[in-house]
Amino acid sequence: MAKRVVPKVTKQTPLGPDVDLKRQVRRDQEGRRIDEGYVERLLSASRKPGRPALADGGPSPSIAFRVPTALRDQAEEVAAREGKTVSQLAREALEARLAAS
Predict the structure, then answer these.
(1) What does the alpha-carbon distance between residue 46 and residue 10 come to, in Å, rounded to a whole number?
(2) Residue 6: left if φ>0, alpha if ψ -120 to 50, beta else—which one?
(3) How far apart are CA 7 and CA 65, in angstroms?
């Protein structure tokens, strides 16, 4: 089955002619009325940054590399046991290796 591509929605995205939020009542899954304020709150929330940056003054650079399945599984087990993410575990290992050189 083909993956569905969801189009990006912005303030400039026109609403269809069959939707007039000022005249027609539309509600979300929780029963809240969808109006201009509702849409603006959704757009504002979607613009908020994700995780805090690790680098000063901008997005954190990333390093991607491949590992054998067994190593990934072991990393997931250790990270879960220590209450960390695999990324945190890898970052600590890289920092320790570089500090030792």
Answers:
(1) 10
(2) beta
(3) 30
Instruction: Give Cα 34 distance to the centre of its chain.
Output: 24
User: What Å distances lie between residue 42 and 50, 54, 85, CA to CA?
Assistant: 15, 26, 28
Could you give the 3-state DSSP secondary structure of residue 16?
Answer: coil
Q: Which residues, in sequence order, are CB contacts of 59 under 8 Å at separation 6+?
A: 53
What single string gives the DSSP state of each residue in 61-97? P-------HHHHHHHHHHHHHHT--HHHHHHHHHHHH
Percent share of the chain, pLDDT over 70: 91
51-92 per-position pLDDT tens digit: 777 777 777 888 999 999 999 999 999 999 999 999 999 999
* 59 DSSP assignment: P
